[in-house]
Amino acid sequence: MLKECLENVRRTAPLIHCITNYVTINDVANVLLACGASPIMADAAEDAAQITSGCAGLDLNLGQLHRTGLEAMLLAGRKANELGHPVVLDPVGVGASDFRREAALQLMEEIRFTAIRGNASEIRALAAERHTEGGVDADAADAVTGTGLERDAAFVRAFSARIGCIVAMTGSLDLVADAKRCYLVENGRPEMSRVTGTGCQLSGLMAAYLAASPERALEAAVSAVCAMGAAGELAWERMREGEGNAAYRNRIIDAVFLMSGEELEQRARFRAL
Amino acid sequence: MLKECLENVRRTAPLIHCITNYVTINDVANVLLACGASPIMADAAEDAAQITSGCAGLDLNLGQLHRTGLEAMLLAGRKANELGHPVVLDPVGVGASDFRREAALQLMEEIRFTAIRGNASEIRALAAERHTEGGVDADAADAVTGTGLERDAAFVRAFSARIGCIVAMTGSLDLVADAKRCYLVENGRPEMSRVTGTGCQLSGLMAAYLAASPERALEAAVSAVCAMGAAGELAWERMREGEGNAAYRNRIIDAVFLMSGEELEQRARFRAL
Amino acid sequence: MLKECLENVRRTAPLIHCITNYVTINDVANVLLACGASPIMADAAEDAAQITSGCAGLDLNLGQLHRTGLEAMLLAGRKANELGHPVVLDPVGVGASDFRREAALQLMEEIRFTAIRGNASEIRALAAERHTEGGVDADAADAVTGTGLERDAAFVRAFSARIGCIVAMTGSLDLVADAKRCYLVENGRPEMSRVTGTGCQLSGLMAAYLAASPERALEAAVSAVCAMGAAGELAWERMREGEGNAAYRNRIIDAVFLMSGEELEQRARFRAL
Question: Which of C196, C199, C144 is nearest to C175 (CA)?
């Protein structure tokens, strides 16, 4: 499954339209190129719908949200829905500002998402429609841990059922669920949180995987989560003396670039809950 | 010629004003510093003309175009024309959206460009004023190949004659022409297309080369194309195990930083067609 | 002092709100993560004040200024003042455009800054309210050198007294002063000016240091300047064959990531003037 999902991206080279924050926009573009997809970043209302028409998938990211970008997201999202393209929402910092929360709710009302990917605080804020205080990083109290797995899986499945799309709640442990099934993914390294934008990169990657394997969306989403986590592990093993989070950032993207389907299969640690 | 053009950049350290997309803006700034120039990025209508007044060259890039950025481009472009500064247009994704195509045509009508640099699909879209579907990467069908060189050279020369500026159509083979002469450049690596923004970087580099050697604009443009391609080759030779497109991105800029005039002369593979 | 300031950042992991240019926004985010702080970038007027409420410090950077960003800066700055958070101003290119100068003056009138950090040309332009021509890099004529130290220190102290905040004028030599005391910092490498955004990174770092040690603001500012300079030195020592300014950019952030309090103490070269 994982191997096929990875190879479908390489084979079909889906063009992914990203409307995303400027902090990590370059990394999202490079990770899309790394996995075999092709990025186009266009966030003006003037051409968002037309650009998305020529693409195979859409990635909407609320980090550093602006009014004009939100307008472009709505236009592109509607067009992608019309054309049946997969659409991913990354609700960065959604609990930290009313503006972002209201934007997320408006987007979820007007656009059918294929998947929503966020950290535990973001997904919980979105589900509860509540305000949190922790910026763009997850609160420790919200994190998925070994002890509350069943409860967390039930929460993610229920949220997925309510909103009608795949939910990926990622962190040191990742849960990826639709209304009926929930997978636990245990790949990744804690040091990934010291690199800005690994979450943004994963959302971009997920849009590419969904675009390349639309008929098996949950499997594609799980594969993307495993691939990003495996890249974080491989990259960490390749770190050399004197290297820190900037080198790690590059090595993660490089690991996505170099990863074969076989390597992904061997590395992946996931199971149905 | 190449050596002198490279050394003129190092010697005069031209300040280059870039109004460019946010995907690759950091790379464009660092490649300008790498070649010996100095970047300033300013894309507000409020100060675009004044900033350009203190510079030696201007680089306008349509990737991720916004209405406000277009306004700044028009103001900066007119001022640069007034002052006789070289101006480069990089029509990123011009075939993928009416907004970008119309912006490009408006810019070409209101501003005298010294050079336009794009991939084969972008240059053909600009010349034909037609819509394409391939996002920001070139379609294989549009690429310059060994078999149609004479025809492609005639096309680029004719387009240059029509619009009155140097045209650089770059890809696995590069054509750089004015109305009378066309050069073929064979430097570069196919892997450069797996790094976002190598085209954007080349356009920035070209603005620096043109600013440093204004009296021999075609030679300066050819030198910039050779330098970028040579950097891609040198960078590829320096790649180590475990490195992918993110490392390659850094190594390309590093190769521009380290390149001497002699090295450029030795590496360059170009000829008049 | 330095060790304690560095360790306070690691221990308290302050969340820093940055309204900053898009050229170096990713580097600023990664250097904040490197030093142990956490970044949030939010520059929309819609949520700037709310975001800053959940943070511990604010960094305002005028590089690539836009009207909407300025509005967000004013809103965030007032809120940060209300809450007693440290606020840093980085007046990038303030001498190069009336728009930026007027924005800086408006910000200085409406917001109480804890520290202003700029290169010699920027600080002199701000103090003199004059126009300069050199883009975003410092003019050689403005630089602090060994011969005019006493005069430069008096200038920086007097400017600090006039505006009521710490002034850090950085370059090959750095002066960091309040109204009464001025420190000279001699860390750093000239090659840092070949990497875009080392100044922006330092301003972000300074906001983190001020947020973590608010009761000793001048010492915190000096520590941040020493840490950035020391990172530049350590990074340069780690450079390998074939590496240039892009590798150096990564190695500087990596050095911030790896730096211990002891290492900072050993490396730091500063003294009261």
Answer: C144
Nearest CB partner across the interface for A41, out of B64, B133, B194: B64
Tens digits of per-residue pLDDT, C114-171? Answer: 999 999 999 999 998 555 555 677 777 778 877 789 999 999 999 999 999 999 999 9
**First CA to last CA distance, chain C:** 17
| B229 marked among binding-site residues | no
Distance CA B189, CA C143 (A): 42
Could you tell me which of A15, A5, A89, A91 has the C-alpha nearest to residue A53? A15
Which residue, chain included where needed, has tokens 């069943």? A150
Distance to chain C for A203, nearest Cα, Å: 17
Count CB atoms within 10 A of the CB of residue B23.
30
Q: d(Cα C71, Cα C67) in Å, to the nearest integer?
A: 6
pTM score, whole prediction: 0.96
The amino acid at C147: T
Q: What is the DSSP string of A112-123?
A: --SEEEEEHHHH
Instruction: Check: CB of residue A26 under 8 Å from CB of residue A197.
Output: no
Q: Which residue has the tokens 């309210």?
A: C129
Q: Which residues of C touch B33 (CB under 8 A)?
A: 194-196, 245
Residues C52 and B257: their CA atoms lie apart, in Å, by: 39
Which strands make up the sheet holding B57-61, listed edge to edge? B38-41, B15-19, B57-61, B87-90, B115-119, B166-170, B174-177, B182-185, B270-272
Rounded to two decimals, the ipTM of the complex is: 0.95
